[in-house]
């Protein structure tokens, strides 16, 4: 009897999924501005933001006399490549890094190499020697959650998207879209150079939403 009930539930779930239309898409998130330490051109040299095209993917580069960083906004994280242009080693101070969502709420973040279960613990700085580069990610800790295993799911750790990107309702998808497009999110990345913390605040604007082809 249990086997029959289980098969019946699977058939119902399959019928539901195949009969529903999923409205989904991708947001265009662009680097709009950077607040560098004191915004001092005299101290940090001339700064610039450049859009880069790599294999049909748009990335965003920021550069001053101390660092060069290339950002790639993704569904669940902000990926970046950081180059140390200074004459000293630099440290990315992860315990002081922050993600600011569309509602202006500051959230703790973690990066690659940190286990999901340890995401809220203290994180040692990442050291980048002069002339070297690192590739890493920024993920809000609040977006990670654990799903218990069940007869329908293997469970495990999950990472929710930075924004709502899909819905079974066209109306709900439009509502979600309108709540994001035009808004700004930020990443605060403190970089220590010679015992001085330099706070870089990167502002990303959600410019557009493009529906996937049904």
| Main sheet attributes: strand count, strand direction, barrel closure | 13 strands, antiparallel
Record field, number of beta strands? 15
Number of helices: 3
Order of secondary-structure elements: HEHEEEEEEEEEEEEHEE
Helix share of residues?
Answer: 10-25%
Shape designation: globular
Mean of residue pLDDT values: 88
Give the termini separation: 39 Å
> Strand portion, in percent?
over 45%
Helix/strand class? alpha+beta
Pick out the low-confidence regions.
1-19
Count of spatially separate domains: 1
Radius of gyration: 21 Å
Structural features, described:
The chain is globular. It is built from three helices and 15 strands. The strands form two sheets. Strands 1, 2, 3, 4, 5, 6, 7, 8, 9, 10, 13, 14 and 15 form a 13-stranded antiparallel β-sheet that branches. It has a two-stranded antiparallel ribbon with strand order 11-12. It has 214 residues and is of the alpha+beta class. It has one domain. It has helices at residues 2-19, 41-44, 170-180; strands spanning 23-35, 48-54, 57-63, 67-73, 78-84, 90-92, 98-100, 106-110, 126-128, 133-140, 144-147, 156-159, 166-167, 184-193, 196-211. A hairpin with an 8-residue loop joins strand 11 and strand 12. The longest helix is centred in the first third of the chain and has 18 residues, at 2-19.
């Amino acid at each position: 009897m249990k086997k029959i009930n289980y098969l019946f539930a699977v058939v119902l779930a399959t019928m539901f999924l195949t009969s529903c239309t999923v409205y989904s898409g991708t947001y265009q998130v662009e680097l709009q501005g950077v607040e560098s330490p004191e915004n001092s051109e005299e101290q940090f040299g001339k700064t610039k933001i450049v859009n880069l095209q790599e294999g049909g993917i748009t990335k965003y580069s920021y550069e001053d006399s101390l660092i060069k960083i290339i950002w790639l906004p993704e569904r669940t994280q902000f990926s970046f490549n950081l180059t140390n242009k200074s004459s000293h080693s630099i440290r990315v101070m992860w315990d002081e890094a922050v993600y600011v969502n569309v509602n202006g709420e500051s959230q703790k973040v973690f990066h690659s190499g940190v286990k999901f279960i340890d995401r809220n613990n203290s994180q040692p700085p990442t050291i980048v020697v002069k002339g070297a580069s690192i590739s890493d990610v920024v993920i809000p800790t609040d977006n990670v959650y654990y799903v218990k295993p069940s007869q329908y799911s293997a469970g495990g750790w999950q990472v929710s998207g930075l924004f709502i990107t899909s819905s079974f309702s066209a109306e709900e998808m439009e509502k979600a879209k309108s709540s994001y497009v035009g808004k700004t999110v930020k990443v605060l990345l403190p970089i220590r150079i010679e015992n001085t913390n330099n706070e870089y605040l990167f502002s990303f604007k959600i410019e557009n939403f493009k529906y996937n082809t049904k």
